User: Which sequence fits this backbone?
């Protein structure tokens, strides 16, 4: 039996849940409350010393990294394939997914925390000492530094503009890919669609939809995606109203103008 350590609103967990849902794979859910620091418990650190979700455990084998988990599921469970047959198309698909690891994943965290999620941390850790002891749990010093910057600087973090720039570029590339296609890789749904929908939906939840005002094909793709059973099971059913509400009141971003 598959076990998934995940979180309701985490974009990379959403990606894995979408693949599980599309392949109709049942799994035991272990939901971690990241704001309460459940990723830092000794039990979870044994499973992933990096203290991040998602983690998939298949028959005792631990698989980390959301992209790697998706490739693993694709290799082990042949039903409802999400990768093209053609090796050149497969390479193209991997390049899309690599973009998440090469910066886009960290940058969605920057946008989310600077505009909204920092409020959750500031509410929970009300003094500098309390914040520092929360940050001290994060095993990777680079991640801790990033978190400190996002939480304390918010909209004035120098990382925010860079993150927005990267997403503008992504949206342009997605718009090109979707210009004459229903799905990012062409006529059929693929792992790339499932990998990117949580990130674009996050921008929408953060009131940044105007970033693709010139690209109606992105909205059409989102609507198409939302009609899939996988979306309903893997994303909609896990929507956390507290997060959605917080993001709906996200600070307005002047760099978009
Ligand atoms: N490259 C990793 C990134 C994992 C990651 O950043 N997970 C976030 C949630 S989206 C997390 O667990 N954060 C915990 C924390 O911030 O302490 C992957 O794709 O799995």
Assistant:
């Amino acid at each position: 039996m598959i076990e998934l350590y995940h979180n309701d609103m985490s974009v990379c967990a959403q990606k894995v849940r979408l693949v599980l849902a599309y392949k109709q794979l049942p799994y035991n859910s272990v939901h971690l409350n990241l704001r309460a620091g459940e990723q830092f418990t000794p039990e979870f650190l044994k499973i992933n010393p990096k203290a991040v979700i998602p983690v998939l455990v298949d028959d005792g084998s631990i698989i980390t990294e959301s992209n790697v988990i998706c490739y693993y599921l694709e290799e082990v469970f042949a039903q409802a394939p999400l990768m093209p047959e053609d090796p050149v198309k497969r390479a193209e698909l991997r390049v899309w997914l690599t973009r998440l690891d090469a910066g886009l994943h960290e940058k969605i965290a920057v946008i989310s925390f600077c505009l909204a999620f920092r409020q959750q941390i500031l509410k929970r850790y009300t003094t500098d000492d309390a914040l520092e002891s929360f940050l001290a749990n994060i095993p990777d010093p680079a991640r801790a530094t990033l978190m400190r910057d996002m939480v304390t600087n918010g909209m004035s973090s120098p990382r925010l503009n860079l993150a927005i720039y990267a997403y503008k570029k992504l949206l342009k590339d997605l718009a090109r890919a979707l210009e004459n296609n229903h799905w990012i890789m062409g006529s059929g749904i693929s792992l790339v669609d499932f990998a990117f929908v949580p990130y674009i939906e996050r921008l929408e939840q953060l009131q940044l939809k105007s970033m693709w005002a010139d690209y109606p094909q992105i909205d059409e793709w989102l609507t198409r995606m939302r009609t899939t059973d996988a979306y309903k099971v893997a994303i909609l059913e896990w929507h956390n109203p507290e997060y959605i509400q917080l993001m709906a009141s996200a600070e307005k971003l002047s760099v978009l103008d």
Notes: The longest helix spans residues 87-124. DSSP finds eleven helices and four strands in the chain.
